[in-house]
Amino acid sequence: MLAFYLSLIDSPEARTKFENIYYSYRSVMFHSANQVLHNAHDAEDIVADSFLAVINILDAIDSTDEDKARNLMITISKNRSLNFLKKKKRAVLIEEEIDMPQEWDHPSPTIDNLELADALSKLIRQLPSEQQDVLRLQYYYAFLF
């Protein structure tokens, strides 16, 4: 994996700096990610993703201050782990089957004018199904985005 990362870096000095960071902090980054995720495979993916982020900020990292560099590496891997959990939670929520009405009757019971409601319903039925689902969630289930 290191060879892949090094292929993304142009200068020899930056490669050496990254290589030192990689060998010095990969295990602590894995440990911090695994503490959050409780899954070794996901933690490995997060560490790989974290090192890609490190490449983007390599010039800003002061590798001479070991405590500061270590804390930065832990912070990167921990934050990426938390973001991963948030995305995973959102994906589970989206994948769960939601009992939504299949027909679009009226967008809201608060619309008094039936002609307006019927016209709006016809327009909404012309939308792609994903957009219709969003509107159903918002108006039928008061789901806020």
Q: How many DSSP E strands?
A: 0
Seen as an oligomer or otherwise, the chain set is: single chain
Given as residue ranges, the uncertain stretches (5+ residues, pLDDT < 50) are: none
Strand count, sense and barrel status of the largest sheet are: none
**Proportion of residues in β-strands:** under 5%
Task: Give the class from helix and strand content and strand pairing.
Answer: mainly alpha
List the helices and strands and how they pair.
Elements: H1 2-7, H2 12-37, H3 40-56, H4 66-95, H5 114-125, H6 129-140
Helix pairs in contact: 2-3, 2-4, 3-4
Can you describe what's shown?
The protein is mainly alpha-helical and 145 residues long. It is 71% helix and 0% strand. The protein contains six helices and no strands. The protein has helices at 2-7, 12-37, 40-56, 66-95, 114-125, 129-140. It starts with a helix and ends in a 5-residue tail after the last helix.
